[in-house]
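Sample pair:
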Amino acid sequence: MANTLSFDEKIVRKLAEILNETGLSEIEIEQENCRVRVARNLTTVATVETPSVIAAPNVQVTTPIVQETAHVDISRHPGAVKAPMVGTAYAASTPGAEPFVKVGAKVTQGQTLLIIEAMKVMNQIKAPREGTVSQILFTDGEPVEFDQPLLIIE
């Protein structure tokens, strides 16, 4: 029995390390007859000035065509705004509303760029600096992964 408990403790500790390294709020694995779920309570929650329930907007955001070569890694672009969490990305606050930003739009530091819904919480993603939006790399209403590039601000 002690060996099983030790084995489970090692799994929990490793999953906790993965949570800290990736910034995820929850992770779960299942092996054989054992399922382990590790979650943490996040104390920082961004608020949205819109209703707490937002249906998938009908806003069409076109993703620009990005020419990629073997040497181009868009995630290393100095103006890349990356997803701070896993969730569903929305370009506007409500269905049918104008998107927060468009390609070519000038933004100021702290301006809302998009919303990521994660666990029924709407999180505003704000501009880390001022500049011009040169690329929008997410599709409205589609899932995004942690650290995925969402926009490029030049």
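Helices lie at 2-22.
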